[in-house]
UniProtKB/TrEMBL annotation:
InterPro entries: Anti-sigma-factor_SerPK, HATPase_C_sf, HATPase_dom. Residues 33-127 form the Histidine kinase/HSP90-like ATPase domain. Signal peptide: none annotated. It holds the Pfam family HATPase_c_2. This is ATP-binding protein. Keywords: ATP-binding, Kinase, Nucleotide-binding, Serine/threonine-protein kinase, Transferase.
């Protein structure tokens, strides 16, 4: 269910040795996939001894849950499988969720303190990433879908 390859895709961060790597998962676009992937990623990060405090790990898992939930709720009709990627090295942990829907959510472009009737989960993703000193964004895929990602510095960086 997971694989390891290459360097962490974050600009300016050289690959490191040890427990760092990139792992990819696929989940169906259904609600019950959310807790399953959250537990799988939590267990992976613990097993690989990712340099995260309990608070940073909680933030990472919160972001993951919000991104997968967003894909399940808004992209399931155009997505047979949601791709999840988690990677970390000595400096960063990066999460990305890929689905087949072309719509780029605007919530990541909005200010976290603005009031919106929808998209609060993605505002939470943005606020959590920025508060930790990281970033997040949306990238279109070659197949017409999108990749929503968040990168957070590991503790102590």
């Amino acid at each position: 269910m997971d694989s390891r390859s290459g360097a962490l895709p974050h600009p300016g961060v050289p690959p490191t040795t040890g427990h760092a790597g990139i792992w990819r998962f696929s989940v169906p676009p259904v609600e019950h996939a959310v807790p399953g992937i959250r537990h799988a990623v939590r267990d992976l990060l613990r097993r690989q001894q990712a340099p995260l405090t309990a608070d940073r790990l909680y933030g990472v898992l919160l972001i993951l849950s919000e991104l997968v939930t967003n894909s399940v709720r808004h992209a399931a009709l155009l997505t047979t499988e949601i791709g999840v990627e988690v990677g970390f090295d000595a400096h960063w942990v990066r999460l990305s969720v890929e689905d087949g829907h072309p719509y780029r959510p605007r919530a990541l472009e909005a200010a976290p303190d603005q009031q919106h009737t929808g998209g609060r989960g993605l505002l939470l993703v943005k606020a959590t990433a920025l508060e930790a000193g990281g970033d997040c964004g949306v990238t279109p895929t070659a197949t017409g879908g999108k990749l929503i990602w968040a990168a957070l510095p590991v503790d102590g960086f």
